[in-house]
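Course exercise 7: structure representation. Students receive a sequence record and must write out the corresponding structure in C-alpha cell form. The form below is the worked example handed out in class, using OBSCN protein (93 residues). Read each field label carefully; the graders check that inputs and outputs are placed in the correct fields and that the protein name is recorded exactly as given.

STUDENT ID: A-19
EXERCISE PROTEIN: OBSCN protein
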Amino acid sequence: KADAGEYTCDTGDQQTTAAVLVKALPVLFKHWLKNEEVEEGGTAMLHCELTKPDAPVEWRKGDRVLQPCDKYEIRQEGTHVELFIYDAEAQDA
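STUDENT ANSWER:
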C-alpha cells in the first residue's frame, strides 16, 4: 500500500492538510556477481544481492537478454537473485 498522498487532521471545527511525497530509493547491489568456473557439462550459478526486495532485474549474456529455458534458470526471492546455467559448454564462455 502506497503511503504517498494527502493527509488531513480534522478537529470537527477546523482541518489542516498536508501532502506526503515518498521518494523511491534506487536499487543497488549489496553483493556483486563473482566470476564462476565450471567444468564442461556442469552447472554454473551466478548470485547477487540487491538492496530492495523483488526489484525487477534482467539477466544478459553480452547484449542478449536471457529468458528462462532448459539452459537458463532464473530465480529471485526477496533481495537474492540467481542465474543457473545448465550443461555448460565452452561456447557459453
